[in-house]
Every structure is written in structure tokens, then in C-alpha cells.
Amino acid sequence: MRVLLHACCGPCLLEPFDALSAEHEVTVLYANPNIHPAEEYRHRRDTLMAYAASNGIDVIEEPYDPVTWMRAVAGLERDQAERCRACFRLRLGIAARMAASLGMDAVATTLTVSPYQDQAAVAEAGATMAAEAGVAYLGGDFRDRYADATRRSRELGMYRQNYCGCMLSDIEAQREREERREARRSKREGR
């Protein structure tokens, strides 16, 4: 089966690619208009591309268009769950349509390796968008391989981001890190 694997970043590519390529002919698609800022987009892309080049992995890059993401999530800024669902539909829709246009059989995503993603929402978006494009969705759950992906990416010296990708997730992650720092500070001071 010919599979187009949507990849969000290099570290998340490692385990899903290995698992899928053991059974299928896999091409990787880097399509992430959600990533902000452009510098972060390039950093993630370059990390993925360097790994792919050194391992003979074919990668297609969808042109970076953050306005597409902004339109997809407009009005959902305060509803993280719905915003993420819209983002999954956007990116998996791009992947499914690309797979169909290339005559591929199926689409999959590296989002299924992350314990931080809503796996039910990813699966729903993947199945819906694949059906609309006329390809199959391979919705394997690779979260049990996340620790291996983390270890391998560190051993390879890959850039590892500390937020999902969009501007809003960056703000939310910064807020959560500050809350954890404050909790540790309070604990040390006996408050």
C-alpha cells in the first residue's frame, strides 16, 4: 500500500515512519500551516528534512501558509479542544487530498505518537478527511512508542520543540511553564 504520512516534526516522525514503512511504501508530507512563527516552522522542517535526507526518506513540503490556519481556527481562539480539531482537519485534509492527487492508497499522521494530542480527535479528523478525499486512513496509535521516539531524537541531537506549534499553544505552554515554576518556588519557600 502506498501511504502519505503527514509529519509534524522530526522527532515525531521516527517511530511512526519505522512502523509504517515496515509494511507499506511511505512518503512523508510536511504540511503544517499552524506552526508559528515562521522561524519555528523552518527549524522543525529543517530538522525533519535533515533526518529524511540522511535516511533516504522521500518528503514533500506543502508551502507554508499560516493564513490558511488562521482562517481554519477563526472564532475558536478560546476553545482549545475545538481549535485543535479544526487544525487536525486542516492538516489531515491537506494530506488526504495530496495522497489522492498522487494516486496513493492511504494517509496517516505522526500526530498519533504524541501523548499530548487528543487521539480521538485526530482519528476522527483523519477518517473524515480521508473519506472525503477517497483514500483510506491508517489511524495507528503509536503512543506506546513515544518514549523510544524521545530517546532516539535526543540521541540524534534533533531539535525538540516545547509547544505544539501554533501561536496560541506557545502562549498556553509559556503560561503552564510559569505556573510550574511558581509552584516550585512556593514549595521551596514553604507557602
Question: How would you sum up this structure, described in words?
Answer:
It is a single chain. The mean pLDDT is 94. This protein has one domain: HUPs (Rossmann fold), CATH 3.40.50.620. By secondary structure, the chain is an alpha/beta fold. 55% of the residues lie in helices and 10% in strands.
Topology:
Blueprint lengths: L1 E5 L3 H12 L3 E6 L7 H17 L4 E3 L4 H8 L6 H22 L4 E4 L9 H15 L2 E2 L8 H10 L11 H22 L3
Parallel strand pairs: 1-2, 1-4, 2-3, 4-5
In short:
It is built from 7 helices and 5 strands, in the order βαβαβααβαβαα. By secondary structure, it is α/β, with parallel strands linked by helices.
Reading side by side through the largest sheet, how are the strands ordered?
Answer: 3-2-1-4-5
CATH class: Alpha Beta
Instruction: Quickly give the structural class.
Output: alpha/beta
Radius of gyration: 17 Å
Describe the global form: globular
Number of helices: 7
CATH superfamily: HUPs
Kindly, what is the distance between the CA atoms of the first and last residues, rounded to a whole number of angstroms? 59 Å
Major sheet details: 5 strands, parallel
Low-confidence stretches: none
In N-to-C order, the SSE pattern is EHEHEHHEHEHH
Determine the strand fraction and express it as a percent band: 5-15%
Q: What share of residues is helical?
A: 55-70%
Mean pLDDT: 94
How is the CATH topology named? Rossmann fold
Oligomer: single chain
CATH architecture: 3-Layer(aba) Sandwich
Would you count the extended β strands for me?
5
| Count of distinct structural domains | 1
